[in-house]
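Review form for a predicted model. The reviewer records the input and the model, then writes brief findings.
Reviewer: anonymous (R2)
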Amino acid sequence: MFRIDHLVYTESMNQNFRIIDVCVAEITRDHDTFLGCKVSNSSKPDTFALEKQVDAPRGYIVHEKKVNDVELKGMAENQGRYLLLPYKGVSTLTHLLGKEKREALSHLQHLVRAVKTLYDATGTIPRMHTNSVFFLPAGEVVFLAHDTLERFRSCHRETERLSVFDLYNDHQRSDVSNFSFSFAAYLYQVLTGSAPFTGESIGRVQHRIAKGRFIPLKFVVPHINRNLASTIDQCLSGKQIDPGDWDRLLSDLETAGCEEEIAEEERLQLLAKGENLRQKTLTVEKWESFFRKYRFSLAVAGMILIFLGSFAYSIISKALEPPVTVGMQPEEVVQLFYDSMNSFDHFSMEDTITKEAGRGYINEAVNVYAFAKMRQAYEPGTTPFVDVQEWVDAGRPLLPAGSSVYGIANLHILPESETSFLCTYEKWTDNESDTDGTSQVEPYRGERITERLFLEFRNDAWIITGVEPVSRIPLTAAIEQD
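Model under review:
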């Protein structure tokens, strides 16, 4: 244990560490129980970050009409660093969205009242993760502040961030407007059992949000109150409603109820309309996916003469679409750029970086992915790429034959200015020098890469316009230098 100012940093917390949500844990130290929020993936103390956290706002606790700063009790280490907050018996918004409908709606009304109080006191509403809003037994609600929330979000893998953040936030909105969207999405989730916009990647979900591609609530739950269904649909499509208006709507529903009687024939008609819209949407997206996919696969596979018209169409349609980065802050664009490498989401990569700056990154990701798919087709039994961060966290074990490694881990983004970020990460690939598995060469090749990214604001969105290499160190050497 060591001390920096009033922060106490404690190691070896495994025996008193219980995960309660993504990047959130209940941590017991000296018979005291704390709420732990992960703010770094590094297992070594970051003195600068710890000192910065002393003066930076960590979050707010709202109780009835009062707002106070949360109290920081220290930091703890367990495969990363956690801020310790003096709260126990915590439920996250993730947990409450899964409750029975009536109970979940009651908690959401409690949430919207807390948000209104916070907005009246601070003039801002943070972009919420479902795992970053905490409900305490005495009725208090805890929100993480912006700076802490950014560090908290950086600890999430893409699939984790997708499930707790991107399903419920519109990157093109902020403050009250984004909260209108988020709260409508929470209500949609509670009333239907599913988020209104879904997808396999952040880029895909945000594309559907930008296009407004969701099934209207009345087509999924026909007996829902018409006013409630209309309000939710409008907020998912762009309308802004203040937290106080949400509170009044839910209060009215306590008397009127959120369901209404409907004739069986009308119910079946509404469900049929919903299914018809779902099928039309799937058809449109299949064609979009087909055109986009062939722009690259034709080049990789040498099928340049096939579907040239489709190839041209994909270029034009992509150029006409707004980038998924509209509304993102510069650091969010940088984070999405690196997340997209691991998920081989070249659509998002193209939206985060210019062709001149990103040609090498995009071509490499596309070629690696295409080669893996071809190998999987010709060599049954081979598997897709493993999650690099999970593989690194597990100690970089030897993978079964047919499995592959490609991607980045332990990403650290350091803002130098609004438009400049110093990024350090580990990059792992299969070692092509050991193709038959018999040489003494390590089967995987790793580097610690440091590079500086520069961004500009173009066409209503931030985009990476330059990448300046700083250093590339073989991973074993990088470890020794730590």
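Findings: The chain has a mean pLDDT of 82.
Further findings: Residues 47 and 254 are 51 Å apart (CA to CA).
Recommendation: see findings above.
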